[in-house]
C-alpha cells in the first residue's frame, strides 16, 4: 500500500487514500464536495495556495453579488481609483458570474 493524493481541479479539495494504484475504485476518483473528477497528485503538488486563494476570492465575489446585487457590486468596482486593481476585480467579477449592467 502507498499513500495516494487526489486533488479536485474545480474546487481544490484534496484527499489521501492508502491503497495501491491498481485497487482504486472509480468512486474514489470523484470529489466529495463538488462531484468533479479528481487528479492523482504527487506529494510536491498537493498545496497550490494560489489556486485555493483564487477559488476563495471568486466564491466571496459570488456571495457579494447575491447579497448586494449585480449592479451595486459593479458600481463599487468601477469606483476603484487604481486601474490595475479595477481590472483585477473585474476579472474576479466575471469569473463569479457577474454581468455588466446596461
Annotation keywords:
2 domains; 102 residues; 3 helices; single chain
Helix content: 40-55%
Flag low-confidence runs: 43-47
Which CATH-level-2 architecture of the largest domain? Single Sheet
Computed structural class: alpha+beta
Q: Mind explaining what this structure looks like?
A:
This protein has 3 helices and 3 strands, in the order βββααα. The protein is an alpha+beta fold. The protein has 2 domains: 2-47, Rubrerythrin, domain 2 (Single Sheet); 50-95, no CATH class. A 3-stranded antiparallel sheet has the order 2-1-3, with no helix packed on it. The chain starts with a strand and ends in a 7-residue tail after the last helix.
Amino acid at each position: 500500500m502507498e499513500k495516494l493524493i487526489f486533488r479536485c481541479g474545480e474546487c481544490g479539495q484534496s484527499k489521501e487514500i492508502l491503497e495501491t494504484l491498481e485497487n482504486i475504485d472509480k468512486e474514489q476518483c470523484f470529489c466529495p464536495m463538488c462531484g468533479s473528477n479528481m487528479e492523482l497528485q504527487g506529494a510536491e503538488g498537493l498545496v497550490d495556495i494560489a489556486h485555493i486563494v483564487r477559488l476563495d476570492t471568486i466564491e466571496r465575489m459570488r456571495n457579494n453579488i447575491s447579497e448586494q446585487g449585480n449592479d451595486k457590486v459593479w458600481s463599487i468596482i468601477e469606483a476603484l481609483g487604481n486601474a490595475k486593481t479595477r481590472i483585477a476585480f473585474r476579472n474576479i467579477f466575471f469569473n463569479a458570474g457577474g454581468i455588466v449592467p446596461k
